[in-house]
Specification:
The protein has helices at 26-30, 45-61, 80-92, 107-119, 133-139, 177-194, 196-211, 214-234, 240-243, 249-258, 267-284, 290-302, 319-329, 356-366; strands spanning 2-7, 14-19, 38-44, 65-71, 100-105, 125-130, 144-149, 152-159, 164-168, 332-333, 336-342, 348-355. With 367 residues, it is an alpha/beta fold. The site of zinc ion has 5 residues, from helix 11.
């Protein structure tokens, strides 16, 4: 069975359905929302191999015609070149104002297809079928779409909400375990932000979530979507609340940027390390108990997520370079950087302006 999370955004509100086997029932859920008995499915080569046929058939069985576009997998696909390619192919397929796009894949396909939907013919509808844990708990909630530039990630984009999100837990069965773990870091983040109860629940269920316990997966995804929906519903664009979602990300982005956003360090892995650093910094500043930082470390390590930068093999981290990245990522005010810190597990707050010297000391210790 499926559970529903409603994302409340006035006239652009939409439902996220979470459950097993939703891809094979996509036609039934999508039909009432379509303006035309036709969809164009956009996916990547990896996801196509496992899930495209089932999704396609689900639409066809519901009397909905399908066309497909398969793009290369990987972060490089979130580019202007691929956006142009995608828009060109959509127009070649005679996409119309009333056509609905279906994004089948992880955050890369979701962000790119959502952005294309927002600008094609001045905006067409789109449905998200997220197939990574990260996309199911994070990128498919909140309506941020976009592509990367040589100057940095996600610098071109729009706020554009899908009509519907179908998060099929069965899709996670084919996801490489490393990707699954990385996505799990974002799940942990929601517990750290404002729910120590959720964090405690995760401590009991993490192993099951990774191994494939269906009920635990569904509950973790639903709770995460509710948490993010609550935050973005309060303010769709940036706000103090939304900033909390960046917990671990200032440190994480610096580590990722230093690795050139390569497979050396996945986003979720960087966030895992970044969250530990945020808790270490909080503890060092006397804001949070040391024990909470230790508890977070233990939890992440228990499912094989990294907790310190030394985990990346053969890399010599340099504190000044990481701080330089953070400066690009975040505004530096009077020699201080704004962080999301915490008074403990479930008690994150922002902004907390911290002296660069203090940050440098922490980095020296942890790298
Ligand atoms: P991804 O889309 O690149 O997917 C990761 C890998 O897994 C890819 O190789 C993909 O082909 C493969 N894959 C996906 N689903 C699969 C499945 N079910 N079975 C087998 N293989 C599968 O990466 P991601 O981690 O899902 O998303 C990362 C992107 O999301 C980044 O570009 C990031 O900027 C973006 N993001 C956006 C938001 C937002 O609010 N819009 C939030 C967080 C992240
Ligand atoms: Zn993230």
């Amino acid at each position: 069975q499926a559970e529903t999370v409603r994302v409340e955004l006035g006239t652009r509100s939409y439902d996220i359905l979470v459950g097993r086997g939703l891809i094979s029932r996509a036609g039934e859920f999508a039909a009432p929302l379509l303006n035309q008995k036709r969809v164009i499915i956009v996916t990547d080569a990896n996801v196509a191999r496992h899930h495209l046929e089932v999704l396609d058939q689900a639409f066809v069985q519901a009397g909905i015609a399908t066309q497909r576009i398969v793009l290369p997998a990987g972060e490089q696909t979130k580019s202007f070149a691929q956006l142009e390619e995608l828009c060109g192919r959509l127009l070649d397929l005679k996409a119309e104002r009333s056509t609905t796009l279906v994004a089948l894949g992880g955050g890369v396909i979701g962000d790119l297809t959502g952005f294309a939907a927002s600008i094609l013919l001045r905006g067409v509808d789109f449905i998200q079928v997220p197939t990574t844990l990260l996309a199911q708990v994070d990128s498919s909630v909140g309506g941020k779409t976009g592509i990367n530039m040589a100057q940095g990630k996600n610098l071109i984009g729009s706020f554009y909400q899908p009509r519907l999100v179908l998060a099929d837990t069965a899709a996670l069965d084919t996801l490489p375990k490393r990707e699954l773990r990385a996505g799990y870091a974002e799940v942990v983040k929601y517990g750290l932000i404002d729910s120590s109860e959720f964090f405690t629940w995760l401590e009991c269920h993490a192993a099951g979530i990774i191994a494939g316990d269906e009920a635990a997966r569904r509950q973790a995804i639903v709770t995460s979507c509710r948490a993010k929906a609550g935050i973005v519903g309060a303010d769709e664009r940036e706000s103090a609340q939304r900033a909390l979602l960046n917990l671990g990300h200032t440190f994480g982005h610096a580590l990722e940027a230093e690795c050139g956003y390569s497979d050396e360090l996945l986003h979720g892995e960087a966030v895992a390390i970044g969250m530990v650093m945020a808790f270490d910094l909080s503890a060092r500043l006397g804001l949070a108990p040391l024990e909470d930082a230790a508890r977070l470390r233990r939890h992440l390590a228990s499912i094989g997520l990294p907790t310190d930068p030394g985990w990346v093999e053969g890399r010599n981290w340099v504190a000044e370079r990481l701080i330089e990245h953070m400066g690009k990522d975040k505004k530096v005010k009077d020699g201080r950087i704004g962080f999301v810190l915490a008074h403990g597990i479930g008690k994150a707050f922002s902004p907390a302006y911290v002296d660069l010297a203090e940050v440098a000391t922490l980095l020296e210790v942890s790298i």
